[in-house]
Target: DMT family transporter
Amino acid sequence: MSSFTLPAAVMTAMLTGLMIACLGPVNSLLQARIGTWSMLTVVHLLGLGVAIVGFCLTQPTPLGTPGDWTRPLLLVLLVGVLGALLLLARSVGSTLPAFAWWGGALGLLVVVGTVQAIGVLGAVRAVLLIILAELVGAALIDTFGLFGRPVLPLNPGRITGLLLVLGGALLTLQAGT
Model:
C-alpha cells in the first residue's frame, strides 16, 4: 500500500505528464548532436546513475548479510557511468544547453511517478491525468517554443481539440467514481 495521499498522487501524475512532454524535445536536442544510438546510451546511463544514487540514499538497511558489498559495487558502477558520461560530454563540447542532458533523469522520474500515481489512483485515472498534463505541457512547449522548438501557436482548432480531450477525460474520471 502506498503512503501517498490522494492529492499527492494527483500532483505526482500531473508532474509526470509534464515531464513526459519535456522528454521528446530534450532528447531530440541530444539526438541531433550525437545520433540516435549514442543518445539512447547517454539517456539510459544517466537514468542508471540516478537510480543508483536513489537506491543508495533510500535503501533503509544493507542488502543481504552484514558483509554485503552491494552498495560499494553500485558506487563503483556509478563512478564508471559518470566517467563515461563526462568523457562523452567533453567530446561533444559545450554546444548543447545543460537541459539536453536531462533525459535520463526525467525518464527515471516518469517511471517512479507513474508507479506511485497508479498505486493510489488506479491505472485509468492516473494515466488520464498523466496524458492531460502531457498535452498541456506539449501545448506550452509548442506555443512558447520551449527547449529550442519552433513556435506553433495555439489556434481555434488546437484549442478545440484539447478541450475535447479534457472533456472526455473528465467524463471518464467521473464515471469511475
Q: What stands out?
A: The chain has six helices and no strands. The helical segments are 6-34, 36-58, 70-92, 103-121, 123-144, 156-175.
